[in-house]
Amino acid sequence: MQNTEKTYHHKNLKQKILNYTMSELNHNSFLNISLRSISKKCDVSAGAIYRHFNDKSDLFQEVIKCISQNLAMYLRKDIETGLSSKEQLNQMGLNFIMYACEHKNHFQLLFESEYSINVSENKVNKGYLSDFPALIEFEKIINDLISEEQLHTNIYDLFVQIWSFIFGYTLLVVNNDISFTEQDIKKMIETILIGNGAKS
């Protein structure tokens, strides 16, 4: 008798699992996504999932890399050639907030979960952010800012200051604690830069 059992170890299954999980995050929190539900949607056995991912944590770590790639592209939205580093950073800050509002579940997994990206001094200084292009976008522009504005600081200190503001401000917006304007972003970034030696 011919074996009719589904072949679940084909080379495209890993990408199919990632695509489904990303799609599911459009409607559900990562807290409501299980390997069982994923295997059911992908029409494979639970064992097939474990051929590609050790556990749910392993899966979400890979999903986070995909989300970070999407966010990195979104951050460059509407940034025109010829803008100064400061103008680019202002637009990136605005884009970051817009992404968080439009993709709340993706944002939650990326930055507010047990699987979230851990930004440490070593990772910024030694280039360990290669798997997270969204953070690399911020790192690049901040490095350019230091040179362009002739700031008296290092990349990690300025990264932390600007990241803390943008991320904290975004959380307030996403949670509907405040309404935001582009002018707020510009003013705060300008204040941070002046505090690090930029000319007003």
From TrEMBL:
<feature type="domain" description="HTH tetR-type">
    <location>
        <begin position="11"/>
        <end position="71"/>
    </location>
</feature>
<feature type="DNA-binding region" description="H-T-H motif">
    <location>
        <begin position="34"/>
        <end position="53"/>
    </location>
</feature>
<dbReference type="InterPro" id="IPR009057">
    <property type="entry name" value="Homeodomain-like_sf"/>
</dbReference>
<keyword id="KW-0238">DNA-binding</keyword>
<dbReference type="InterPro" id="IPR036271">
    <property type="entry name" value="Tet_transcr_reg_TetR-rel_C_sf"/>
</dbReference>
<dbReference type="InterPro" id="IPR023772">
    <property type="entry name" value="DNA-bd_HTH_TetR-type_CS"/>
</dbReference>
<protein>
    <submittedName>
        <fullName>TetR/AcrR family transcriptional regulator</fullName>
    </submittedName>
</protein>
<dbReference type="InterPro" id="IPR050624">
    <property type="entry name" value="HTH-type_Tx_Regulator"/>
</dbReference>
<dbReference type="InterPro" id="IPR001647">
    <property type="entry name" value="HTH_TetR"/>
</dbReference>
<dbReference type="Pfam" id="PF00440">
    <property type="entry name" value="TetR_N"/>
</dbReference>
